Amino acid sequence: MALVVQKFGGSSVKDVERLQNVARIVKGEYDKGNQVVVVVSAMGKTTDSLVALSKQITETPSEREMDMLMSTGEQVSIALLAMTLHSIGVDAVSFTGQQVGILTDESHTKARIVKINCERLFKALKENKVVIVAGFQGIDVNENITTLGRGGSDTTAVAIAAAAKADICDIYTDVDGVYTTDPRIVPEAKKLDVITYDEMLELASAGAKVMHSRSIEFAKKYGVIVQVRSSYEPSVIGTFIQEEGGNNMEEPIIRGVTAYKNEAKVSVLGVPDSPGIAAKLFTALAEANINVDMIIQNVSVHGSTDISFTVSKEDLKKSIKVSENILTPLGAKGLTYDENVAKVSIVGVGMKSHSGVAAKMFGVLSEKLINIQMISTSEIKISVVIDINKADEAVKALHEKFGLGE
Ligand code: ADP
Ligand code: ASP
Ligand code: MG
Questions:
Q1: DSSP string of 78-119, one letter each residue
Q2: Which of 170, 292, 366, 392 is the most exposed place for a label (fewest CB within 10 A)?
Q3: Which ligand is nearest to the CA of 10?
């Protein structure tokens, strides 16, 4: 008997018909004699609608109340899925994040899971029930509801798979696997049979929406085998996310390309070029629960310098406020921001052993007359910040020049 965790995203549960489809997939696994834990997202675009509702009231809602609001979406789908399973004769029980013991830190709207107490889940499985868990949500030490960041149901699923020592975590979505780039933007994108944890982690944090990046951190840390597959074609084998070097894995130089359009760039101008300034600024941003992505500091001229950094668009207003509070008293000359930027990244483990990859990337962008505003690299990733209107063109050109569609 295997323990299988299945996760179904928003589009896979968007209406009653799709819920019935999910129930059939769950029943198929349950009828094999396996124990099944199902994690579900909110139906369709529910979370977007809830966010839009809050925006009608205020641009800067309390993050605690945002979590209270957004977590309701998943509660609807777990109850409906349980009823759907009951209607086809499968004993199932639904739990919220709190009920299934998902403890997180206190960072509202982007909380991290710190512990999962699986007692209640195991008890229900022992009673031969299918366990349905609300994705994306947890509870902090003060019993406040938290959410894990947009797309966070993947993380709920993988974290539960890790905590319950599941045999596999199947992520059912609206594509049949992980592709070399978003197949909705580049039709030539190729489906990958396998991808390493590190590559998927880089692609996900660089914006490939197909997996929530934190879920891959869990998968890697606890060795959870993850398969990304389609809820529309459940018989098709998806993409396996696994350790490097497994199963005669081929190691191309570049595994994938991705664009992230939800970033904004903030530049603080003319700050004193003296020790402690960057520390003050980025400590204040961290204390305000803002994740900073890329940072560059210009060469100083006459003792002052400019610092630019990127944050998610949701955090832009807060970032401006925090930066101004810190820097105005220090005599900074001004602050500018740009929401029309995107981050384009290429990822591949093969980069470790090949030179000239960055040069080739920059060459492709220059051919297309695309200006690079910021650059950052890791061992297996190169990212650039460019004009958002050029992002799709850049992804297509890079996908082609690195031969990913072949
Ligand atoms: P779900 O609602 O199931 O969580 P998401 O919308 O979060 O699904 O993620 C699936 C989407 O991710 C796909 O529809 C696809 O457009 C997008 N995507 C982006 N990059 C990739 C990629 N490299 N491979 C596959 N899908 C990708
Ligand atoms: N419903 C949440 C969202 O739309 C979580 C998820 O779908 O994974 O972001
Ligand atoms: Mg998702």
A1: HHHHHHHHHHTT--EEEE-TTTTTEEE-S-TTS--EEEE--H
A2: 366
A3: 1
State the pTM of this model.
Answer: 0.92
Sign of CA dihedral 110, 177, 185, 243: positive
Ligand nearest to the CA of 152: 2
149 lines ligand 2 (CB under 6 A): no
Angle at alpha carbon of residue 230, lines to 226 and 231, rounded to 5°: 110
**CB-based contacts of 50: which residues, under 8 Å, 6+ apart?**
42, 69, 70, 72, 73
| pLDDT tens-place string over residues 91-120 | 999 999 999 999 999 999 999 999 999 999
Which strands form 295-297's sheet, in the order they lie side by side?
Answer: 295-297, 304-312, 263-272, 334-338
Residues within 6 Å of ligand 1 by CB = 9-12, 41, 151, 173-175, 178-179, 181-184, 208-210, 256, 258
Environment class of 13 (CB within 10 Å of its CB; exposed 0-12, middle 13-18, buried 19+)? buried
Which residue has a Cα nearest atom 4 of ligand 2?
47
Q: Write the DSSP symbol of residue 12.
A: G
Ligand 2 centre to CA of 365 (Å) is: 33
Residue 278, exposed/middle/buried by CB under 10 A (0-12, 13-18, 19+)? middle
Q: Which residue has the tokens 């398969």?
A: 227
Q: What angle do CA 42, 46, 50 make, to 5 degrees?
A: 120
pLDDT digits (tens, 9 = 90+) for 118-129: 999 999 999 999
Mutate to test the pocket of ligand 1, among 39, 153, 182 (most ligand atoms within 8 A of CB): 182
Any ligand 2 atom below 6 A from CB of 207? no
Tens digits of per-residue pLDDT, 192-207? 999 999 999 999 999 9
